[in-house]
Amino acid sequence: MATTPAQQSEHVVSQGKELISFEEAMEKLSREERFRxxxxxxxxxxxxxxxxxxxxxxxxxxxxxQKNLR
Length: 70
Description:
Blueprint: E1 13-14, E2 17-18, H1 22-28, H2 31-48, H3 54-68
Antiparallel strand pairs: 1-2
């Protein structure tokens, strides 16, 4: 699982382009995409802050999937 550092979140340049505003992202993304962006963002922050490791996340993810695919 790849994560990117949160550096100057409003000014980070990705592939030569400035990031869109939070308001624009909320407006343009579908409900499902907003949910996915929220999960991605929270997971990235929790890993970066050392709350859990990518391996711990993957274990919990696999455990949830196995339980719910029965």
